[in-house]
Amino acid sequence: MVDAEQFRAVLGQFATGVTVVTLPADPSHGITVSAFASLSIDPPLVLVSLDHDTDAHRRLADGDDDGFAVNILSRQQRESGEFFAGMTDEGDPLAEATDAPATGAPIFDDDLAYVDCSLYDSFEAGDHTVYVGRVEAAELLNPDGEPLTYHRGEWGTIASSSDDS
């Protein structure tokens, strides 16, 4: 069996983008998530993985919310990533969010992009549940922006590869 600390250290070598998954029901809610991926083009599906100990998981599992938005964060949104990860309680990004067109989940103007999803399916996997969302709307908001990344426990971004010739 792999030790939990060793497992975290090994997976920390995988650089990920950072997203905030938001839920529309009153009060709206958000959680920082790096476990996000596209799943299918036809139909358009994405997945997010949520820990069973989170409010976001409870709200989706209990049916309080039947959809969610995935906000793909830009480098300038580190504070939002920290806020929704529970690392700080300063500011409230939800106060200035707008509603996604299909679900009404909060989206942020400075996102790189977002996908707005109805709940399509879910399945438990260990201490998490994988939620599959059917993409009802998607938009590029800042396509030239730099992504916020997380690697080895640190926030960062990636250098443009267009200079590598």
What is the spatial order of strands in the main beta sheet?
Answer: 3-2-6-9-10-5-4
- Main β sheet profile: 7 strands, antiparallel
> What are the segments in which pLDDT stays under 50 over at least 5 consecutive residues?
none
Separation of termini? 44 Å
Our estimate of the beta-strand percent is: 35-45%
Order of helices and strands: HEEEEEHEHEEEEEE
**Derived structural class:** mainly beta
Could you say which overall geometry the principal axes of the C-alpha atoms support? globular
CATH fold-type name: Pnp Oxidase, Chain A
Helix content: 10-25%
- This entry's quaternary arrangement is single chain
- In CATH's first tier, which class applies? Mainly Beta
Mean pLDDT: 93
> What is the level-2 CATH architecture name?
Roll
How many helices in DSSP terms?
Answer: 3
Number of domains: 1
- C-alpha-based Rg, rounded: 16 Å
Q: Tell me the total number of β-strands.
A: 12
The CATH homologous superfamily is named Electron Transport, Fmn-binding Protein, Chain A
Give a description of the structure:
This protein has helices at 4-11, 55-61, 78-84; strands spanning 16-17, 19-23, 29-33, 36-40, 45-51, 67-72, 98-99, 106-107, 113-125, 128-140, 149-151, 154-156. It is mainly beta. The chain has a single domain, classed as Electron Transport, Fmn-binding Protein, Chain A (Pnp Oxidase, Chain A, Roll), CATH 2.30.110.10. Strand 2 (19-23) and strand 3 (29-33) form a beta hairpin. The longest helix has 8 residues, at 4-11. The chain starts with a helix and ends in a 9-residue tail after the last strand.
